Amino acid sequence: MRILVIDDDEVACEFLQEALSTEGFRVKYYTSARRALEEEELSSYDLLISDIKMPEMDGISFLKEVRKNWPELPVILVTAFGSLETTIEALRIGAWDYISKPFSPDAIRKLVSKVLDMRQLHARQKDGGEKVANTQQFIGSSAVMVEFYKQLARMADSDVSILIEGESGTGKELAARSLHQLSNRRDKPFIPVHCGAIPETLLESELFGYEKGAFTGADKPHIGLLEAAQGGTIFLDEITEMSPGLQGKLLRFMQNGEIRRLGDTHPRQVTVRVVAAANKNIDEEVKRGSFRADLLYRFVVRLHIPPLREHKEDLPLLIESILKKMGYSHVRISDEAMEMLMSYDWPGNVRELQNVIQQSLLLSPYGLIQPENLPPRVRHFSLSLAPLEMAERTQILQSLQATSWNISRAAQLLGIDRKTLRSKMIKYGLIREQS
Asked: Rounded to two decimals, what is the model's pTM?
């Protein structure tokens, strides 16, 4: 099979050519998307791989041209600057997949094989697509977050019910809002319901509504939140806090789309997408008997939000965004403080990061956050490295400094591969100060 690679970085082109040629693919590359369009008959290729950030013509513009003339030709986009908005745009225009740099030869080979296998199974993705208008966005361009963005993008226009799983503070409601904003329901209501914050006796009447006289104090009819969300999305946060009896009523609604207000004998048809979130292990809740297995199975997709400790390379971007949102975009983080932040495990995830930054701002009068401005738990955690870990960290830092932070050369000096070096850099909070 023939593959065409486009990247303005010739080294990146050669890397892909070498990685894919070993699998028997015939690979040709261009360092200019415009030249590739002018000189090549793209229909003779089975797959295109293009970088996004390029001069003259970027990968998104190139993808649009490909979609106009070769709508069924698979395209994989590559970038070092992944974001939810870019991912959504790329996938909606018609990219078959999306991968963020750096990646291993094995990762790109597996992705190429998967895309070529899917070619016979997947219909062409729709052309165009509205740009996301959302005031809140996930921040992060790591491979972990880009994979999460791809899942969000692909589920957005589906009508299936989705269960969002993740630790506290990872952004489950933001994920639900993103699904709604990216869907064709975006102009309809999005109604969040925090099941754990509403007493059980009230939650049923809030969800399903009631008729006048249904109980003492019901002096007029009340439209439930499921009815109020007609045509849109209802987000049931902390669904594991819902009582078994109410779970049964929700199950019946999800099966047939019918609700019955309290005190009413007539069912009403409601079309609502149900998105729920759980910060408990829902499988364990099913085993304990506190959550119904048949209700769990009504959620077609289970979406997992990665915890912050799994993508700590996004910390600088997240911190920059938090400072800007708080009106402190001029504040800087010292190298030592950043290393401590990178070393910390963040059990409270992004919510805890926001709290730490806010607390540090109050303790930092000079527009520069130093280690002493950080909360004690962050400082003490970074100082808890074992002597061998401290020695390894020092050796890695010296190698990076000796090679002007060239990761490939530093990895050679250390006798390890790039992927291992990057993992250790994240573990030890080693990042290069941006000039």
From this structure: 0.64
